[in-house]
Amino acid sequence: MKKILNKLLCSKNLQVKEMYKLMLSIGKKKLNQSQISSIITSIKIKGIKKREILGLIQASWKLTKKFTSPKCKYSDIAGTGGDSSNGINISTSSAFIAALLGFKIIKHCNESITSSSGSSNILKCFNIDTQMSTKLSQKMFKKFNICFLNAQKYNPIFRNVHQVRSELKIRTFFNIAGPLLNPSRPKLAVIGTYSKDIMFFMAKIIKKMKYKKIFLINSDKTDEATLYKPTYLIEIKNQKINSKTYTPIDFGLTWRIKKDIRKRSLQDNFKILKKIFKGQGSNEENELIAINTAILLKIFGEKNLKKNTTNILKIIHSGKIYNFIKNISKIGKT
Predict the structure, then answer these.
(1) Residues 110 and 194 occupy one common structural domain
(2) What pTM, to 2 d.p., does this model score?
(3) CA–CA distance, 330 with 327 (Å, rounded to integer)
(4) Domain identity same for 42 and 83
(5) Hey, which of 27, 31, 71, 187 would disulfide with 212, CB 3.0 to 4.6 Å?
(6) Cα gap 133→139, rounded to integer Å
(7) Contact in structure between 195 and 71 (CB atoms under 8 Å)
(8) Are both 92 and 233 inside the same structural domain?
């Protein structure tokens, strides 16, 4: 282990087996917080390599608590985070809407690191516990087409690095790996990336995994589709990588002008989402969620983005999402 740590301190890249061993040591609590901080900082400085992410992924699968994969078609939708956009929780909102429309979602989630409201944080505001038992999560999925698996509950590596990551408050290689480590191992996923530059890097990693189809998206340095810049999408399907570019016109909408978003608190985002889910959100917020959900439906085979967007906006305007979430939050409380 000392040899591996010294390699990192000298800004040398690790082999898959070395990273695997290092991450296993973190997951088994064989390294202290200072050592973990040094590891994260050293890799941040030298830059992460594909084989190092693969080593982390292999170690995670070795240690991750099992969640039995359902036999039906289901997808994850998550983001790398780390884009400092201060925006509302788009992927979580899209997951709820897709589930309400009958599409099955098992969402991998975590508490915030660099943002004010991670997916687990906002779910807690809606009285949904992402730390619930596997049995209750499966019950939720069966009844509502959706459940949420907390990275720290299932993956001891992510649990043991959380304190350091929260203190450092910087984007790290865990942002890249996190969305790829859903304990249910979905064959489908939509993953937002914090940078257009890392999309092909992630695509090459994904080719080594067992996804059937996955979309990577980025727009204007945010891990989501937007209405004011082109949205870049990379599709990895059957080991082939294809890229596409979408504009609001492709969703049947018009361009919007970008607004500067002030730093929002968790409660700010909660209040905004609550209004949206009750059918009282602004047109721009509704459309932003709608286009991201339209992409999620596309991965299930619903290819008509304009039709998807229209149907999603109807659901948003109806206010049915809020009652749907209220019913979900009762799981495990009765």
Answers:
(1) yes
(2) 0.96
(3) 5
(4) no
(5) 187
(6) 10
(7) no
(8) yes
